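In response to the reviewer comment on reproducibility (Comment 2.3), we provide here a single inverse folding case reported in full, input and output, so that an independent group could reproduce the run without further information from us. The structure tokens appear first.
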């Protein structure tokens, strides 16, 4: 009787010891699995711009998480690339899970192998927790690759925008240089025109103006003044600054600026005095002089003086043959 009780006590103690060992073994396995998942998260932070280094790190951390790490090896296939742990060798004892892209399509797989049998006959070589672990690892790698790909595309887009911005800056610099040369050419051409008018045309026009009288003299005077206007920036600036002015109104502006009266303008243009007055009213309105006590002649002459001053030229003839 006493022997039976002793045997029962030893059996109970052995059962408790075995149960405690099983719990400790299970806890150690869970700790290894948690360490594996933590390592993968850390690898993603460390190698967020290096996909190859990240995937190799994942492969290296898999064998220690398995029940028999000394005979475990791993491989990760991604696209055309292949990453293997140390002493990798394929065997019949394989556990795998697919890596998916953002559309759910497989783009690779993770594999764990036992290089040799270390379990009893008829037993599943892999623990149920290891089946779950490799699926969790594959899911984490899938999410990490999506995130790393998105970051890579974002960096590439940023670099592309920087290149385009730099190219636009270079184009703007080139355009400013071209515009500067064009402006210089324009001023040079204008200066040549002014010089030719002053040296060649104006002396002849002044002499002709002294030889004629009456209406013909008015026409020659108008010709001289219009030659002045052709080379002057006055009409150009007037046209650019007041685009609402019609060609007829611009012509009337030139005649008013030259001091011609309403009747003289009407006679030279063969129109009625009322028409000239209507032109003058429209010009005052478009120049912003309506209901203002500003003399139109003085205003136009001041505009011409400012243009001529900016140009730095004078249109008086250098010499005249008139006596």
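Designed residues, in position order:
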């Amino acid at each position: 009787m006493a022997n039976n009780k002793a045997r029962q006590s030893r059996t109970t103690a052995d059962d408790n010891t075995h149960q405690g060992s099983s719990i400790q073994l299970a806890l150690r396995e869970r700790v290894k699995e948690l360490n594996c998942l933590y390592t993968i998260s850390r690898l993603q932070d460390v190698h967020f711009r290096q996909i190859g280094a990240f995937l190799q790190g994942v492969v290296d951390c898999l064998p220690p998480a398995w029940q028999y790490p000394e005979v475990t090896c791993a491989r990760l296939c991604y696209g055309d690339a292949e990453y293997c742990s140390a002493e990798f060798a394929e065997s019949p004892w394989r556990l795998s899970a697919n890596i998916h892209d953002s559309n759910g399509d497989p783009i690779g797989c993770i594999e764990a192998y036992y290089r040799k049998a270390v379990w009893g006959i008829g037993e599943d070589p892999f623990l149920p927790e290891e089946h779950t672990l490799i699926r969790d690892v594959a899911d984490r790698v899938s999410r990490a690759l999506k995130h790393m790909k998105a970051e890579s595309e974002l960096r590439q887009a940023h670099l592309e925008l920087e290149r385009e911005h730099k190219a636009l800056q270079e184009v703007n610099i080139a355009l400013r240089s071209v515009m500067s040369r064009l402006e210089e050419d324009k001023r040079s051409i204008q200066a040549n025109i002014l010089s030719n008018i002053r040296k060649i045309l104006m002396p002849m026009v002044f002499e002709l103006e002294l030889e004629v009288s009456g209406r013909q003299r008015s026409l020659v005077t108008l010709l001289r003044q219009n030659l002045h206007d052709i080379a002057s920036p006055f009409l150009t600036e007037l046209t650019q600054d007041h685009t609402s002015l019609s060609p007829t109104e611009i012509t009337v502006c030139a005649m008013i600026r030259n001091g011609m009266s309403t009747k003289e303008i009407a006679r030279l243009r063969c129109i009625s005095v009322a028409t000239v007055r209507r032109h003058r009213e429209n010009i005052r309105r478009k120049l912003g002089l309506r209901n203002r006590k500003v003399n139109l002649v003085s205003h136009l002459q001041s505009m011409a003086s400012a243009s001529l001053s900016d140009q730095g030229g004078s249109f008086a003839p250098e010499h005249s043959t008139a006596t």
